[in-house]
Amino acid sequence: MTTWTATLWTYNIRVGVESSLDALAAAVRAHGAPDLIALQEVGVRWQMGERVDQPATLAAAVGLDYHAFAGALLDGNGGRFGVALLSRWPLDGVQTTNLPRAEDEQRVILRARVLAPVPFVALVTHLSVKPAERLAQAEVLGGAVAVEAGPVVLLGDLNDVPGSPTLAAAEAGLVDCFDAAGEGEPVTFSVRAPQVRIDYIACGGGLAPAGPARVVRGATASDHFPLEAVVGPG
Predict the structure, then answer these.
(1) Model-wide pTM > 0.85
(2) How deeply is 143 buried, as exposed, middle or buried, from its count of CB atoms within 10 A (0-12, 13-18, 19+)?
(3) I need a labelling partner for 212 at 20 to 30 A (CA). Which of 48, 103, 110, 201 fits?
(4) Which residues pair with 224 in a beta bridge?
(5) How far apart are CA 77 and CA 75, in angstroms?
(6) Using CA atoms, how far apart are residues 8 and 34, in angstroms rounded to an integer?
(7) What CA–CA distance (Å, rounded) separates 106 from 128?
(8) How far apart (Å, rounded) are the C-alpha atoms in residues 227 and 165?
(9) Domains of the chain
(10) Which residues pair with 82 in a beta bridge?
(11) Residue 3: its pLDDT value, please?
(12) Distance CA 81, CA 15 (A)
């Protein structure tokens, strides 16, 4: 029986405008770089923040060799804005799925197969701030989880609270890592006035919580705190 585990983060970095990419990378390194980091509000030469390939820059700065990006928005100069995945292990089968949109900005799911010692699929997203639109997106997200035949993790800023219809739809069939193994306060937003939990990591399909989940309160380089969880075969 394998003793393999993976330490995961989800982190809305607000394209580094709250501090800098250097400060974000330092915050990650200070708390022990995880094996996988899902990023939301990240840019590739985007009009806000540092106009570089932010996933590539951050992956190199924290010592993760692989990264993938899914663009949801384009600016007038070829810049893109969306979600990303930074990984210790190679990423395969990278796909971007557009989520339903009515009035808010476009949102996406980034899907990648993580070639870890126990390979698994990672789904990364950032859902709408509009309630009806968010629920429709969560239902599509839940469907994306359901079609995965093996180990899967869901990471992201779901912009809604525990017990909401959004969470019920998005995490259907999965184990919420903080609910199962959380330590300390679960609030992830905001850093300046912590009051709500809107960032989540969930797993299933042969993966289970294998260690504590926690909000990384010492990482204050964005307007969100990162959320950390440990998963393994189970």
Answers:
(1) yes
(2) exposed
(3) 110
(4) 189
(5) 6
(6) 6
(7) 8
(8) 21
(9) 6-233 (3.60.10.10)
(10) 42, 71
(11) 85
(12) 9
Take residue 85 and report the two structure tokens written for it: 């995945």
Position of tokens 């995945």?
85
Ramachandran region, residue 61 (left: φ > 0; alpha: ψ -120 to 50; beta: rest) = alpha
Token pair 């007038």: residue: 76
φ and ψ at residue 125, rounded to 5 degrees: -155, 170
Cα–chain-centroid distance for residue 118?
Answer: 20
100/89 Cα distance (integer angstroms): 31
Closest CA to 219 of 18, 30, 41, 15: 30
Cα 16 to Cα 131, 136, 155, distances in angstroms: 26, 29, 19
Q: What residue has token string 């993976």?
A: 6
Residue 1 has pLDDT above 80, yes or no: no
Q: Please, what is the angle between helix 21-30 and helix 54-62, to 10°? A: 30
Q: State the alpha helices, DSSP H only, in 93-221.
A: 131-146, 165-170, 177-181
Q: pLDDT for 26-65, tens place per residue?
A: 999 999 989 999 999 999 999 999 999 999 999 999 999 9
Is the N-terminal amide bond of 190 cis, ω within 30° of 0? Answer: yes
pLDDT one-digit tens code per residue, 168-217: 999 999 999 999 999 999 999 999 999 999 999 999 999 999 999 999 99
Question: Residue type at 169?
Answer: A
What is the DSSP secondary structure assignment for residue 196, as one 8-state letter? B
